[in-house]
Design goal:
The protein has 5 helices and no strands. By secondary structure, it is an all-alpha fold. It has one domain. It starts with 19 loop residues before the first helix and ends in a 10-residue tail after the last helix. The longest helix has 15 residues. The chain is 56% helix and 0% strand. Helix 3 crosses helix 5.
């Protein structure tokens, strides 16, 4: 009996964020979750889907500092959030619950 190995790939959400609408819906869902770490991870996924170098250039941030800020151990400042969200072509909105 021959054993076959199943090959797997690591899941990367960025591979599935194809349209601006997908990205906006994903970020909105992360905001609704209410967990800052979930929001940061979603913002990082979207930035990687768009291209981290492009987002760094548009936001005026260094690519390495952007990777660091959006990492699980990063310390994401709100000013950086605003720069990244705008460079992604998205807006944050406040709505009444």
């Amino acid at each position: 009996m021959t054993k076959t190995k199943t090959k797997t790939r690591r899941w990367d959400t960025a591979d599935y964020l194809k349209s601006d609408e997908d990205m906006a819906a994903y970020l909105e869902a992360a905001l609704e979750d209410g967990d800052a770490a979930v929001f940061t991870a979603a913002l990082g996924d979207i930035a990687r889907a768009k291209g981290m170098s492009q987002i760094a250039r548009r936001s005026g941030l260094g690519r390495e500092s952007l990777y660091k800020a959006l990492s699980p151990d990063g310390n994401l400042e709100f000013a950086t959030v605003l720069k990244v969200v705008r460079s992604l072509g998205l807006d944050l909105q406040a709505v009444v619950r």
